[in-house]
Amino acid sequence: MSSIINDIEIIKTKATKINDVDFDNLQFGSVFSDHMLVCDYKDGKWHMPKIMPYQPIALDPSAKIFHYGQSVFEGMKAYKDVNENVWLFRPYDNCKRLNISSKRLAIPELPEDYFMEGLKALLEVDKDWIPTKEGSSLYIRPFVFASGNGFHASPADAYKFIICTAPSGSYFSGEVKVLIEEKYSRSANGGVGFAKAGGNYAGQFYPTQLAKAKGYQQVIWTDDNTHEYIEEAGAMNIFVRINDTLITGPTSDRILDGITRKSIIELAASENIPVDVRKITVNEVVEAAKNGSLKEMFGAGTAAVVSPIAAFGYKDTDYDLPKLEKTYASFLKKRITDIQTNKTEDPFGWRFKV
Ligand code: PLP
Ligand code: COI
């Protein structure tokens, strides 16, 4: 297949903002690189992506994104090694998942080369924005939304695929305490929980605000039917360690098939850490916390990387996790970030050179 890379028009900014950025004190996703990639779907097809200066976009007030929430997104990171090589982590999986999400939201799927070649071209233009400080990276946000107009509650006839990037530090600041949800649900069987749909996050904000008011950073969602099973957190999949076994719930149509999650499962298995992918009950975790067999809980995701959980709340009681010297979380975090940043061999073939 011939590459589209030479067909992508590039309009460069006349005034870089890079000198305004404090690369030593980066927050998560709050300053944006100079350029963005924009690709339009109209007249029944996706048109050639363009790279242009990062800027606001004009939409008609009747654009369907505003009314019916047709939008999906991805989260990825680019890393730069000591030799200035640029790396992505399993990027084809993000492209596939974007299209899985799009299909569920009746959004036309994007050609893989528009995503991959477009992203590579964008990273080439903005490669100076990729931070090199330990723990920082260039967070990449590809997204697709309905830009077509009309109040009719049906799929739009026009869409935009955009990629923006943001030099970023860690997602959480400080210790992470989570609340196991007893009332609200993030997703349901047959719903859109497996998709990275914007509305899944909007629906979490109110219950998460309630949890934050009580001192928790994230909600751990439980199954919508019984609230007895642990599913995932707001922005990450969840692992628990009981004795020496690492356990995570199976993916389903209610849970995002996290790329970090599946990488952690493979990494742990390759390090002879016993891993169980099975349903976990809240009761089992509470009992394990009470009898001391609950050693660790952590979240796994692109933004969150591997985030240890310091405590969880359930039915008005807080359960602290033990403070161990050697944890699976820190071991696996180092293994995965060393692979991502080209500090070690990648026996899995996950790292992708841009
Ligand atoms: N679960 C949810 C709801 C998320 O938003 C994310 C973040 O992308 C994840 C899990 C982790 O997925 P991944 O590891 O692919 O980033
Ligand atoms: C990611 O980890 O990339 C995500 O998309 C999670 C998001 C809520 C920050």
Write the layout of secondary structure elements.
Elements: E1 9-10, E2 35-42, E3 45-46, E4 50-53, H1 64-68, E5 71-73, E6 76-80, E7 86-89, H2 91-104, H3 112-125, E8 137-146, E9 159-168, E10 176-180, H4 198-213, E11 218-222, E12 230-233, E13 237-242, E14 245-248, H5 259-270, E15 275-277, H6 282-291, E16 294-301, E17 305-314, E18 317-320, H7 328-340, E19 351-353
Parallel strand pairs: 1-4, 10-11, 10-17, 14-15
Antiparallel strand pairs: 2-3, 2-4, 2-9, 5-8, 6-7, 6-8, 7-19, 8-9, 11-12, 13-14, 13-16, 16-17, 17-18
The structure holds pyridoxal-5'-phosphate and 2-OXO-4-methylpentanoic acid.
Short description:
The chain has 354 residues and is an alpha+beta fold. The protein has helices at 64-68, 91-104, 112-125, 198-213, 259-270, 282-291, 328-340; strands spanning 9-10, 35-42, 45-46, 50-53, 71-73, 76-80, 86-89, 137-146, 159-168, 176-180, 218-222, 230-233, 237-242, 245-248, 275-277, 294-301, 305-314, 317-320, 351-353. Strand 10 (176-180), helix 4 and strand 11 form a beta-alpha-beta unit.
